[in-house]
Amino acid sequence: MTPKILDQCTAGAFDGSVPFPETIRRITDDGVEWYSANLILGMKTYYGPDLSHHQTPWPDYDVPPVADAFCAESVSAAIRASQARQIDYREFLKRVAEAGVVYYTVHPKGRRAIYFGRHGDSFVEPFPS
User: Fold this and answer.
1) How far apart are CA 107 and CA 109, in angstroms?
2) CA separation (Å) from 4 to 25, 28, 29, 57, 99?
3) d(Cα 110, Cα 125) in Å, to the nearest integer?
4) CATH number for the domain running over 3-126
5) Longest alpha-carbon distance in the chain
6) Which residues of the chain have pLDDT under 50?
7) What per-residue string of b and e applies to 90-112 under the rule 16 or more CB within 10 Å gives b?
8) Where do the structural domains in the chain lie, given as residue ranges?
9) Which of 73, 62, 75 is nearest to 101 (CA)?
10) How many angstroms separate the CA atoms of 74 and 98, rounded?
11) pLDDT digits (tens, 9 = 90+) for 5-32
């Protein structure tokens, strides 16, 4: 894994220069097996197949209020709005926090993302075809 590439992908998510499909391509090519995005800590942690890792803090990030109750329908709606490019990444994070998400994981080989709430609730989103 190349820290510079991972940092660029994270920064690109925030400034809109690297869309999600491109991020997945770049990090997979760079040897990332999966990553987690922590809304409380404001950082992504990328993991290699040997469980090596690299943490990338989010630029200019304020922790959004996270709802106590988890709402899978609202998580799904935020994902759809992001996929349709109706909202940017910051707004996506705000909306999933309002839906009760504290962190999510992305698994390129498994082609899915998993969103987790404060009390163990979760929502699995398969990657679009």
Assistant:
1) 6
2) 15, 14, 13, 13, 32
3) 11
4) 3.30.1810.10
5) 37
6) none
7) bebbbbbbbbbbbbbbbebeeee
8) 3-126
9) 75
10) 8
11) 999 999 999 999 988 889 999 999 999 9
